[in-house]
Amino acid sequence: MAATEKELRLRDSQLAQRKDAAAASGRPGDPANAIECRGVTKRYDSSKAGLSGTTFSIRRGEFVFLVGPTGSGKSTLMRLLIKELDPDDGRILVAGRDLGELTHKQLPFYRRNLGVVFQDFKLLPDRTVYENVAYALQVTGSSRAEIREKVPDILRLTGLATKLHHYPDQLSGGEQQRVSIARAFVNAPPLLLADEPTGNLDPETSIGIMQLLYRINRTGTTVLVATHDSAMVDRMRRRVIELAEGVVVRDQLDGQYAPTDMSTAEFGALLREPAPEPQRVPKKREPGDDFDEAFRD
Amino acid sequence: MSIRFFTREALSSISRNAVPSFAALASVLVTLLVLGVFIPIVQATTGAANDVRGQVIVNVYMKSDATPADAQRVRTQLTELDGVKSVQYVSKGTAYAQERRKNPAAYDLLGSNPLPDTLRVTPKNPDNALALVSAIEPTTPGGGRTTIDPSIESVGSSKDNTDKILTATRVVKLTTGLLAALLIVASVLLISNTIRLSVFSRRREIQVMKLVGATDGFIRWPFVLEAVILGALGALLAILLLGVMKVALVDPLVNDFALLSAPSTIGFGVLVAILLGAGIGVSALGSAISMRRFLQV
Known about the structure:
The complex is a heterodimer of chains A (297) and B (297). Chain A has 10 helices and 10 strands. Chain A is of the alpha/beta class and 297 residues long. In chain A, 42% of the residues are buried. Chain B has helices at residues 3-16, 18-54, 68-80, 92-102, 104-110, 129-136, 159-200, 203-212, 216-253, 268-295, and strands at 58-62, 84-90, 118-123, 152-156.
């Protein structure tokens, strides 16, 4: 990661002042940033859920959790990033490109560079696991040979090799989410967005899903996960961006789900409850190391 | 990807959505069946009405002392008038023979021939019959009537009859035209509504396709192709049924009913082409239009 902890803290303190200036400036995006939001504002008529002047950036290759209570704007941000919505104000840059400049025609080609994972999986119900994943390749115009080669590969990687010809409703929630991750990753996108990927899953299954996302991150893909799963965030100790009422209120490296004072982070860790699955998490190790262990080839 | 891919997608989508597909096919079938019956009926009716209109003529009665030379001169004048299709000369004797045949007793009573030489003028357009009368018998500035030739006694326009025939045929034409228009509008609405329902039931699928990065065309073509296949199937079935009806019901009756043998009725081949074109065109257009709303994601 290029940004050090110091830099991030500095950024925290300066966010408010920089918000408006950044929104107004027309400077091009930093190509080292996978995502850059500058003063992004989105209002809805009916409710307060939205964003007001959200500013942050995510470097390439980072694994970032986006946390915050319901209505804090997490999903709005996700929908803005896949350009399902357009911001009322501010700019969103992905890989240095301004999403506001994308035309309707360019949109599909932009989305092919994104992997998207949702809480409700969003699988095509009338297609098998294989066909669901293959569809993401078909839309890019891949040849049949390419599809026959890549799809079984990615399904083996996600642990679905035996479920190729099952339909989504024949699978468990965790398996469906694996299919959706396989579909999101089959094109090897540089950026993967996951909106509450474990929202419908039990803790045990969630670990498997997070492992997958982590493994994807280790291939160089930037991963942004919006989540309520405090246990997962606390254990993985990645960068955490917290939103409240549409504003970034916290941006921490090695963050936890709940806000803690940086100086007392160690103390907080000591006071924490034991990890939810003691049999799977050896207590002596640092929480972040479990994943390195799990994915050692 | 190729046409083959889209065709495969369309066919498998028909089999996956069997019920909406059947509904679309059935609505095309019923609509075209009605159209297929109605078009020849409208044509036969207007054909019959036109036959009646063709009988509208203007009788120009010569004075009783007019010589055949006068008649010849008048005839030339009439032929030169605008809107005259043909002029037929009926001499006193011919007229007497014709009329006597209708009512021998009455003419026997008369003893002598009271009928004048007559020029039967057929107007090019029956609607202009009355204008033609005015042309042959213009109004003088004083308000009376004069004729274009002194040897003309009077112009028998059979004004009332002409009026009645023209009004009646106009009503028939208007009614059938209006019915045909209504029927076509209803058919288009029925088909497009059925297709819209089937597209609506799959809006989630379309949304997922968009998220994966499918272009509008990539999503639209299988749907349109599906509609084309269903439209063509419905049209073919309708044509088959119409063919059976024609052979079984209409053909045996042709000799007995003048209306059925009206020469102007559409040829079966042309009817088949129209129905096939309408079935395919309306379905394809309907699905393309219905899709548009759901593609705006």
